[in-house]
Amino acid sequence: MDNSEFQAHTEQIERLVARVSTLADEGARAAALDLLQSLMGLHGAVISRIVEVLNDSGESGRAALARLGSDPLVCGLLVLYGVHPVSLEERVARAINSVSPKLRKQGGSVELQGVAELVVRVKVESSGHGCGSSPDALKTTVEQAIFEAAPEVTEIVVEGLTTSGGGFVPLNMIQPAAREEKKYEESAA
User: pTM for this structure?
Assistant: First the structure.
């Protein structure tokens, strides 16, 4: 299962919960929602226990837990049940560190400004050089990395994205200088 399939399943569950919430039969609605909460409670307890066992299993268990925590599908599940072994701030910082080399190749950079109340603030800058270095491309790259590592983030505030113009000199700036140079050459001859 990939991220898009996982997302599709999540959206289907949300639609079904919304549908159950509108059932006219109050008893059926309450039973269906109780069933969902019971399943979520059971799954949460089991996932929490798995995290605990891996964490208590020495270095190999912690390494396996770290690998699971960085897997995009498992990460979302661990976040859902509130048992992710890595803090939100650390996951966001890791995501930014992992995407930084790609941004540098695209002529950009990213800096974490802060994480508060599920809102991430980053500063993204572009030199205007490099393949795929449009501000939108850089922003998308950063956002994807953050949302993959921290699906609970509700907002990413991107500051910066200023371009330096990349050495572009308007034609009208060149022409007068070229004319003056030509006049100088003619007078010197």
Answer: 0.69
Residue with tokens 């002529």: 107
CA distance 14 to 20: 10
Nearest to 138 by CA among 98, 103, 184: 103
Q: What is the pLDDT of residues 133-147, one digit of tens each?
A: 678 888 888 999 998
Beta bridge partners of 94: none
9 phi, psi to nearest 5 deg: -65, -45
State pLDDT tens for residues 21-55: 999 999 999 999 999 999 999 999 999 999 999 99
What is the C-alpha R_g of the chain? Answer: 26
* CA–CA gap between residue 22 and residue 115 (Å, rounded): 36
Give me the domains of the chain, ranges plus CATH numbers.
3-80 (no CATH), 88-160 (3.30.300.130)
